[in-house]
Specification:
The chain contains 13 helices and 18 strands. The protein is an alpha/beta fold. The structure holds D-mannonic acid and magnesium ion. Magnesium ion binds near residues 248 and 274. GO terms for molecular function: hydro-lyase activity; magnesium ion binding.
């Protein structure tokens, strides 16, 4: 064997790598890998609002060097794309690597004739607990929205309400709009934010919900990166009596030291990481024990291989998973999360935002949800297939996430 060249391996090769961009309800980028023995593996590469950048990365720079590679060499291919690019990390690169990684895991599990969770170590639990999303423009609307989720069987609910006097508010649908997680329009819409009013309004929301629903219901809240560390610390302290399940993304966490400050002031559990894409984004957070939940998605954190690396490191400090599951992660990305959720030891909870019916005209899924819990299903591999003909009926539509502004017009984190 010549040094530096891997010659051993399986004789199953990657025969083709195609990128499908479709918009059944919202934009999705899907990588379709085929092997020379006829299997088809899928990977999600959707980066909300920047979809075409990942599609080009895959089509122009990854597909040509994947063809002919050993389809079973998952770790080697991950390292080949990560180290081989020289330019490491970042959401576009890591979503592209994730798509390849998940498609290869899908192929390997199909080749074994097993659902993916079986080759990730098998079941560590019977079912996967998920949280749903409730919201309202006022507290009465929010209460009705929570009630509707309780009827669907959820025992954990993310709660978001418009800030009085400002309107809008992260995670709240505007009247008639139908969507509370918008990516819409040829240009971003702009939304106002006022930290003072927001921080004063959140305890009132928790007060109402605890009084209405009692102590058993798990209540989660997403701050969406909008506060300074000291504002976040104050918010956390003011909520302790209501025992939130967590506060998410209290401040922009690319400054990892910010969460150390928040942690010193409050015992409210903290979750972060949906915008992270590498284990290196978490090093200080783990060393400081500043967080309780890892929010990265399979899709944006380098696939099953990348996310598992993060979650194994998290486990050392008893930090648990809370895999990101917004609707901008496709059913392929969600399925990958569910297989990992079932196999992980340090599972915490899974986010479930619920894709619209149109999405399932393109993606046929084997996972299911009932009474607050998911099952990834027993189909071989990920258990998801893509109808390429149907995908053609839903061409890409430019759609952007909103931009936040303070009341004086300063651009703020959205
Ligand atoms: C949100 C996300 O799921 C969440 O917790 O923060 O929905 C996020 O806003 C989107 O993924 C942005 O594309
Ligand atoms: Mg979030």
């Amino acid at each position: 064997m010549r040094p530096g060249r891997i010659q051993e391996g399986s004789d199953v090769k990657i025969a083709s790598a195609d990128v499908v961009i479709s918009s059944p309800g919202r934009n999705f980028v899907t990588l379709v890998l085929k092997t020379d023995d006829g299997l088809v593996g899928l990977g999600d590469a959707t980066v909300n609002g920047r979809e075409l950048a990942v599609a080009s990365y895959l089509r122009d720079h990854v597909a040509p060097i994947l063809i002919g590679r050993d389809a079973h060499a998952i770790e080697d291919t991950w390292q080949y794309l990560y180290r081989g690019a020289y330019w490491r990390r970042g959401p576009i690169t890591m979503a592209a690597i994730a798509a390849v990684d998940v498609a290869l895991w899908d192929l390997k599990a199909q080749a074994a004739g097993l659902p993916l969770y079986q080759i990730l170590g098998g079941r560590s639990r019977n079912a996967i607990r998920a949280y749903g999303h409730a919201y309202g423009t006022d507290l009465d609307e929010l209460t009705d929205s929570v009630r509707a989720l309780l009827e669907q069987g959820f025992g954990a609910v993310r709660v978001q309400v418009s800030t009085p006097g400002i309107g809008g508010g992260y995670g709240v649908a505007e009247a008639g709009d139908g969507g509370y997680e918008p990516a819409r329009g040829q240009r971003p819409v702009e939304e106002p934010f006022d930290p003072g009013r927001y921080v004063r309004s959140v305890p009132a929301m928790f007060d109402k919900l605890r009084n209405t629903f009692g102590p058993e219901l798990d209540l989660l809240h997403d701050v969406h990166h909008r506060l300074t560390p000291i504002q976040a610390a104050r918010l956390g302290k003011s909520l302790e009596g209501y025992a939130p399940y967590w506060l998410e993304d209290v401040s922009p966490a690319e400054n990892q030291a910010a969460l150390r400050l928040v942690r010193q002031h409050t015992t409210v559990p903290l979750a972060t990481g949906e915008t992270f894409n590498s284990v290196f984004d978490y090093l200080q957070l783990f060393a400081d024990q500043s967080i309780d939940y890892v929010r990265s998605s399979v899709t944006h954190a380098g696939g099953i291989t990348g996310l598992r690396r993060i979650l194994d490191m998290a486990a050392v400090g008893q930090v648990k998973s809370a895999i990101h599951g917004p609707t901008d992660v496709s059913p392929v990305g969600l399925a990958a999360a569910l297989h990992l959720d079932l196999a992980l030891h340090n599972f915490g909870i899974q986010e479930f935002m619920q894709h619209v019916d149109l999405t399932f005209e393109v993606f046929d899924v084997g996972y299911s949800f009932a009474n607050g819990y998911f099952q990834p299903g027993e189909r071989p591999g990920l258990g998801v297939s893509l109808d390429a003909r149907a995908a053609e009926r839903f061409p890409y539509r430019a759609a952007y996430l909103p931009v936040g502004r303070l009341l004086d017009g300063t651009v703020h984190d959205w």
